Amino acid sequence: MLSFTPLTIEHHALLRRYYDGCDYHLCEYSTGTKLMWSLYLRPSFAQEAGCLIVRNRVDGEWVFDFPVPGPSGDVDAALTAIEEYCTETGTPPVISVVPEEKAPELLLRWPRFRLTNERNWKDYLYRAEDMAAFAGRKYSGQRNHINKFRKEYPNARFVVLTGEDMPLIEDFWGDYEQEFQKTSFNAKRELTYAKALARLLPEGWLLGGGLLSEGRLVAMSLAEKCGDTLIIHVEKALYSHQGAYPTLVQAFAAHFGGDCTYINREDDANYRENAYKFIAGQVKEGRQAYVICPMVEESEALDDVANVVEYSEDLSQKLDSSIHVAYLHGKMTGDEKNRILTDFYEKKVDVLVSTTVIEVGINNPNATVMMVENAERFGLAALHQLRGRVGRSNRTAYAFLMYRRNTMLKETAEK
Asked: Could you give the CA distance from residue 43 to residue 26 in angstroms, rounded to a whole number?
């Protein structure tokens, strides 16, 4: 029977032997992710049939990664070992974060296998060449930010970071924490994990790069190569240096992504996914939700700002098909708006994606969730009005304010 060993930082070389050639394209199948989030996932591992088998603790239950084969690994034998372990211990056989191409294999192996899609990981899997060039209309917003950064900091340059640069990195953490005003436990924990991972740079497998301006780092990134995917574990930039973040993303991809097909940026999508999961739970309980976007349609000048039309289409794909998503905006005719609102009041629509057209005069006591995208683009008064669209009954209401990563927030917004 499989015997699992708690995974610690001392096992990084062993993990790399498997993950170095892993082509699953998922950040969970990487050394950095296992080490950064070890206190959260409580991973343990076993080696069987030339494969790495990792077990994680999620929501109080043990779940398994899909086996990662070494050069002569037998995945079928490793899955059999998991089955035998689960039978012996009474552990439910749950494979978590299944690589897309491996799902059919599990469906054939276990006819009663239930596949649950709770995560659209492709949201942050990019073509390496796209990140290195930022070409085309889709990335016009990023190019604008980079141009502004280059104009303001003409002497800034990309540098490769190694173990010899630890003093420079420590200085960066000091500067970053001076500007880092977030008080949430999750934000502080993520920063602690990032700093711990950076200390592994001297080991050689972790890739580091940053933007150097006037002798100090203003942005830095840490990554590792797993198969044909460059997996980004850390991306940090000083809030005071606007444009440093996309400049770092492009420069890092150009330097390290040349022999990679994909870049997985391990973004902050988990926060959004958790919000989606919460919304789905509220709908399951018979409640409804609003999602607010600043714009009606896509804008080339504001490429990184959420718009109602595309967002509602994407959200429909991410939520269960039983959840009805509709959109509303001020450019619709009066009859169209009335029809959508009537459907929302009559619970024919579960999630309403809208502009601020609903911030006043809308009263649906059954709506318990308000999620605002690009909240940094709204004034405090508007956010207050939007928040007031929920909590209009004796049921507990919730508001999620999502803002663009690395946005410089004013003191009022941070509070």
From this structure: 16
